[in-house]
Amino acid sequence: MDFKMGKNRIKKIRTIAAALTWSLFLAAVGVGAGAFNREKRQIIQVIQIEKPKVALTFDDGPNKKYTPALLNELGKRGIHASFFLMGKNIPGNEKLVQQMQKEGHLLGNHTYNHVELDKIPVAQARTEVERTSNEIYKITGVYPQYVRPPFGAWPKNFDLLVTMFPVLWDVDTLDWKSKNVDCIMRLVRSQVKDGSIILMHDGYQTSVDAAVQIMDELLERGYEFVTVDQLLIM
């Protein structure tokens, strides 16, 4: 996680350095003041485009009662989130999975029965992941590439066995535990930074309410919401 965040900072530094180098070059070759100022304004705009990024992620869904409300709030703000689906919760909620895909959210795997993958035999762990991937594929026509291991438990070299990328987090809202919007917000405010992956769940009304507040507050602070794949490939 720290390496990924470091890469984000390096990218910004390189962008600024390249812009300043170009600015100095234009000055050195004697470009006219008008053209130079235009170039300078464009360089400043490029630098300003670089916003801090954050990924909002939700585990354990889909939930028939709360996921629709969450999708509605995300849609109002044009925000794409990452949903790590639990296989046993998919039957009966196929339309919600289709809606997630249609609206541009990332669909990930959260095992079938929410098990600790390093506490069970490897063959059983593989079945837990593959069964959920197959459920998602039957609905969307796409196999998920990312998996959120319950409790962060990831067996050594398991990514090679299931050919998927594990996704952890650096901001744990503990929303399932507190079920309190103020507690959730305190945790987010104290921990969030550029490149953060925020862990939440879409099975509680308080989580939906907190997610709305997180979105509005971080948007106001200049953050850009992205899906986890956009952070991990940067």
UniProtKB/TrEMBL annotation:
Metal-binding is among the record's keywords: yes
Keywords from the UniProt entry: Hydrolase, Metal-binding
InterPro entries referenced in this protein's UniProt entry, alphabetically: Glyco_hydro/deAcase_b/a-brl, NODB_dom, Polysacc_deacetylase_ArnD
Record keyword Metal-binding present: yes
Pfam family, one: Polysacc_deac_1
Domain (NodB homology): residue spans on this chain: 52-226
Domain of life of the native organism: Bacteria
PANTHER family the UniProt entry points to: CHITIN DEACETYLASE 1-RELATED (PTHR10587:SF133), GLYCOSYL TRANSFERASE-RELATED (PTHR10587)
Record-given protein name: Polysaccharide deacetylase family protein
Organism the protein comes from: Blautia ammoniilytica
